[in-house]
């Protein structure tokens, strides 16, 4: 009886969560950048305003334009790929809202400075 119960529970979990693909599998280059960076934007990229503690971007917050300098780090959780602070978005980040950007590739920004953190991951 226990074997049937465990088999049924395992099958249910597989059916429920088995089709979920890891977000990081699409962009392996992002996993190489594990610090906080001061970057210059090289290509225009949309930016999203995210309500903290919720999984979905709320609204498009605008764009990061070529030449803007912001701080960013790869977060990869809770609907946020890259957290953005600094620039015109610096004062807007608080405990309720934050900003997220999905860099299309590494060629979308140039790293100006690296802020190495310890014991983050």
From TrEMBL:
The keyword Signal applies. Keywords: Signal. Residues 1-22 form the signal peptide. The keyword Signal applies. This is Surface layer protein A domain-containing protein. It comes from Lentilactobacillus parakefiri.
